[in-house]
Design brief:
By secondary structure, this protein is mainly α. It contains 11 helices and 2 strands, in the order αααββαααααααα. The protein has 2 domains: 64 residues, Arc Repressor Mutant, subunit A, CATH 1.10.10; 143 residues, Four Helix Bundle (Hemerythrin (Met), subunit A) (Up-down Bundle).
C-alpha cells in the first residue's frame, strides 16, 4: 500500500459518480473499493466521509454508505441558490481582474466550439464550461463562495452533463456563455452577473421540461 497516498480516491470516486459509473442509490462497499483502488479500508472510509460532507454520499440505516439520490424538489431548490452564487461569482471575477485577462476564454467560446456543438459534439462544450467555472471561481477569490459552489457542483455535475444533450440546450448554453464572457472581456461586471443568472435560469427551465429524462 506504499502508493496509497498518491491515489486521489475522493477525486476518482467523484468522477465515477458524476459519470454515473456508480449510479444513485448504489451501495459503496468499503472492501470492494479498497481492492479496486489498492488502498486500505481506512482510506476508503476517509474518502466516503469527505464525499458525505459534500452531499455525494449518504448513510442509510442497515445499508451503509450509498451514492446520494437527488429528487426533483431538492434539485430545483439547489438551483435557486446556484443561480445567485454563479451570478455573484461572475461579478466578483470581473471586478477583480483586468478585462484583457478574459481574452483567451472569449476565444474558447468562439467559432471552433460553436461548430463542434452544431455537429453534436457535446464533450468540448462541457469542458469549456468547466474551464469557465475554474477561471471564474479562481478570479472571484472568495474561499466561502468557492466552497459553496464546489459543493453544489459536486451534487449537480451529472445533471449538468445530461442537460447539455437535451434538444438545443448545448447550442443555447454556448450562446449564453459566449455573451457572458464577452461582457467579462468588456469589463462589465453587472452585465456578466445578469447574463450568468439568466443562463442558470434557462438551464433550470430545460431541466424542468425534461426532468423525467435527466433525473
Amino acid at each position: 500500500m506504499a502508493s496509497a497516498q498518491m491515489i486521489d480516491v475522493e477525486g476518482l470516486l467523484r468522477e465515477r459518480i458524476a459519470r454515473r459509473e456508480i449510479p444513485p442509490g448504489a451501495k459503496l462497499r468499503e472492501e470492494a473499493l479498497a481492492e479496486d483502488f489498492k488502498v486500505s479500508r481506512a482510506r476508503i472510509r476517509q474518502a466516503l466521509s469527505v464525499l458525505e460532507t459534500r452531499g455525494l454520499v449518504e448513510r442509510v440505516p442497515n445499508k451503509g454508505a450509498v451514492v446520494a439520490t437527488l429528487d426533483a424538489p431538492r434539485i430545483f431548490k439547489l438551483y435557486d441558490v446556484f443561480e445567485m452564487l454563479e451570478g455573484l461569482c461572475a461579478r466578483l471575477a470581473v471586478q477583480n481582474t483586468a478585462p484583457e485577462s478574459w481574452q483567451d476564454l472569449l476565444e474558447v467560446f468562439g467559432p471552433e466550439l460553436e461548430q463542434a456543438v452544431r455537429r453534436g459534439e457535446y464533450e468540448p462544450m462541457y469542458e469549456a464550461v468547466k474551464l469557465y467555472r475554474t477561471r471564474v471561481i479562481e478570479a472571484a477569490d472568495n474561499p466561502t463562495l468557492r466552497d459553496f459552489l464546489d459543493r453544489i457542483w459536486d451534487m449537480t455535475e451529472v445533471i449538468i452533463r445530461r442537460t447539455l444533450i437535451l434538444p438545443a440546450r448545448a447550442e443555447q448554453s454556448f450562446t449564453e456563455h459566449a455573451r457572458i464572457v464577452a461582457a467579462m472581456r468588456a469589463g462589465d461586471a453587472l452585465e456578466a452577473e445578469r447574463l450568468k443568472r439568466e443562463n442558470m435560469r434557462s438551464a433550470r427551465q430545460a431541466l424542468q421540461k425534461y426532468q423525467e429524462f435527466v433525473l
